[in-house]
Amino acid sequence: MTFTATACAQEADAPPSASRSQAAPSPSPLGPPELRPGHDQLTSGSHRGSADVGPVTLRKGVNWVDVNCRSDKEPESLTLTLDSVGSFTIDCPSTEDRFSVNELNLTEGRGDRLSIEVADSVQWYASVQAADPEAKQSPAP
User: Which domain holds residue 74?
Assistant: First the structure.
C-alpha cells in the first residue's frame, strides 16, 4: 500500500480555500489464530511488545504454535520461546498481518512456559493448540 502526501503553500493575499485532510486508514484489529477443529487451545495471549504469556502444558504428539503479528513501524523480528523446546523467530511486517504456523511433534507431554520478545511497536496474538484427546480425529487424506 502506498500513500502520497502533497504539501501546498498559500499566498498571504489569496482567499482561504476549503481543504480536506485525508488520514491513512487505521489497520484492522489483529485477530487471534483460528482454533483447529478437534483441538483444544492450551494457552493464548495478545499483547504489544514483549510479554511472559505464562505456563502451558504441551501434550504428547502434535502441538501447534500459531502467531499473528504486525508492526506499527518498520518490520521487526518476534522471538517466541517455549522453555523446554527452544525459540524461533518470526518476521512481523509493517504492511500486512503475518500468520505463522509452527508444528511441534513431541514424544511426551511436558510443562512449559511461553514468552514473546519483540519491540513495543509490534502487536501480536499467540496460540498453542493440541488435539483434543476426547475428539474423534478424521483420517488424513
Answer: 39-131
CATH number at residue 53: 2.60.120.260
Q: What is the pTM of this model?
A: 0.73
Give the model confidence (pLDDT) of 6-64 as tens digits: 222 223 333 333 333 343 444 677 888 999 999 999 999 999 999 999 999 999 999 99
Helix, strand counts (H, E) of the chain: 0, 8
Q: 79-117: buried (b, 16+ CB within 10 Å) or exposed (e) per residue?
A: ebbbeebeeeebebeeeeebebeeebebeeeeebebbbe
- Cα 100 to chain centroid distance, Å, stands at 8
